[in-house]
Amino acid sequence: MLIDSHCHLDMFDDSIRDDIVKNANNAGVKYMLNACAARASFEKIIEITKKYDCVFGAIGQHPEEAEREGIVSKEELYTFISKSKKIIAIGETGLDYSGENFNRNLQIENLLNHIDVAKNTGLPLIIHNRDSNDDMTEILSSEYKKSPFKAIIHCFTADKKMADKMLELGFYISASGITTFKSAGELRDVFSTLPLEKLLIETDSPYLAPVPYRGKTNEPAFVVETAKVLASITNTSFDEITNITSENFKRLFELDIK
User: Fold this and answer.
1) Which candidate, 6, 48, 63, 1, places its Cα nearest to that of 253?
2) pTM
3) Which 3 state secondary structure label does DSSP give 157?
């Protein structure tokens, strides 16, 4: 069984979403987690989880969207989480310092709000981390010491030092299509050292299509390619890595699914 632990089905046009989900199922992707980026997607994601038995959802706000929309309140997060039992995660949220004029203080405030909601609900937090390793490590470590919470470092692209710090907190680390890129040798080296029981796989579709689909719109069916590469670099078979990552997903989200 394959599980795409992070995709954005809400970003596909309504007219093709049925086909995108069908393609995934036909490729062996039995379940998908529709991560959330913006307040504007809250209602849509809940609708999607209700329509498709194989899709779970998350509610949260990407750091860049927090700058565009204004920070979503904790009360609003709680309200939308409570609308569906299939909302099983908080996020994605985090820090993104890749732009020239990012608002560091606003992003940190937004992240702290999401951490608080994750702590109070017990739902895992989906972390977006880009060019912000130092602040991210400091904030997550400090908040975890105050009271623990569960988290996934999604689309991991950082170094071994960052990975080890996240593992020390008990967090999961997710491999995206980036691991298939020719230029990602160092990232593959990092993943080859990580404990199998802490790995997840994802597409982050419609972004980051893996080899051999680079340049095309990514979709959950393509998570197969990331699984192949992850199996190769961890010296496991394809069936082993898909089973391991699926069991990890079920354990993290406390799901009784088959």
Assistant:
1) 6
2) 0.97
3) coil
Q: pLDDT for 62-83, tens place per residue?
A: 999 999 999 999 999 999 999 9
Of 12, 7, 61, the C-alpha closest to 38 is: 61
Domains of the chain with CATH codes: 2-170 (3.20.20.140)
Tokens representing 66? Answer: 């927090």
Closest Cα partner for 244 from 181, 194, 188? 194
User: Are the C-beta atoms of residues 35 and 126 closer than 8 Å to each other?
Assistant: yes
Classified as helix, coil or strand, 199 is strand
The 10s digit of each residue's pLDDT in 111-141 is 999 999 999 999 999 999 999 999 999 999 9
10 Å Cβ neighbour count for 122?
10
CB atoms within 10 A of CB 232: 15
* Cis before 206? omega within 30: yes
Q: For residues 59 and 34, what is the distance between their CA atoms, to the nearest angstrom?
A: 9
Which residues 6+ apart lie within 8 Å of 222 measured at CB? 27, 177, 203, 205, 209, 210, 213
114: Cβ–Cβ under 8 A, 6 or more apart, which residues?
Answer: 60, 61, 77, 90, 91, 93, 125
Dihedral (CA of 23, 216, 229, 49) sign: negative
Contact yes or no for 8/204 (Cβ under 8 A): yes
